[in-house]
Design goal:
The complex is a heterodimer of chains A (116) and B (111). By secondary structure, chain A is an all-beta fold. Helices cover 0% and strands 53% of the residues of chain A. Chain A is globular, with a radius of gyration of 14 Å. The model of chain A has no long low-confidence stretch (mean pLDDT 91). By secondary structure, chain B is mostly beta strands. The chains are: A mainly beta (116), B mainly beta (111). The interface between A and B is medium-sized, with 23 and 29 residues.
Chain lengths: 116, 111
């Protein structure tokens, strides 16, 4: 069984400041990890993914995340926030095996607010 | 860039009525999924579908729910007799490998 915890349901940063959104996972087997972003009234857009290659993963819009097995974490960062980054961010985990059709387990989401 | 599409974008129905939510997955994908997000809550897995059968389902996916791929392009979720608590955003997703791509969702409101 897997679970995902996102610390902080709301995070507020100033434009230009560092963005750090936290994600910790629990999985009995090696995981695949994903970050999705949801803009208001839109669907879930893939931001980045970790699927057993490099532990530091770069995504769209300047975001990146680092898989740390020892900390069971996959925190999302961006050096400089932009107003357009305001959205809800979801961390998700699925199991790592040869079956591509594995369910995603989502965290509760973090709403990022960017102040001018 | 190919994308998952869903229709309708919004659906309002009366309690007890049947609804069918439609999805067109990305054309070369083989795995299909439904998730739902009740307002203010987590995105929850409902069901996955592969090779014309359900491969995994959650405890939410009871006998009131069914899925079908009727014509090789559409993927549908049917709720036979809707309840108030079925009100949610329903997301379809598809994958060819390990990454799932989501549609924009159907917002279902049961009155």
């Amino acid at each position: 069984a897997q679970s995902v915890t996102q610390l902080g349901s709301h995070v507020s940063v100033s434009e230009g400041a560092l963005v750090l959104l936290r994600c910790n996972y629990s999985s009995s087997v090696p995981p695949y990890l994903f970050w999705y972003v949801q803009y208001p009234n839109q669907g879930l857009q893939l931001l980045l993914k970790y699927t057993s290659a490099a532990t530091l993963v770069k995504g769209i819009n300047g975001f990146e995340a680092e898989f740390k097995k020892s900390e069971t974490s996959f925190h999302l960062t961006k050096p400089s926030a932009h107003m357009s980054d305001a959205a809800e961010y979801f961390c998700a985990v699925s199991v790592r095996n040869n079956n591509a059709g594995n369910m995603l387990t989502f965290g509760g989401g973090t709403r990022l607010m960017v102040k001018p | 860039e190919p994308e998952v599409t869903q229709t309708p974008s919004h659906q309002v129905t009366q309690m007890g009525q049947e609804v069918i939510l439609r999805c067109v997955p990305i054309s070369n994908h083989l795995y299909f999924y439904w998730y739902r997000q009740i307002l203010g809550q987590k995105v929850e897995f409902l069901v996955s579908f592969y090779n014309n059968e359900i491969s995994e389902k959650s405890e939410i996916f009871d006998d009131q729910f069914s899925v079908e791929r009727p014509d090789g392009s559409n993927f549908t979720l049917k709720i036979r007799s809707t309840k108030l608590e079925d009100s949610a955003m329903y997301f379809c997703a598809s994958s060819g490998s390990k990454t799932q791509y989501f549609g924009p969702g159907t917002r279902l409101l049961v009155l």
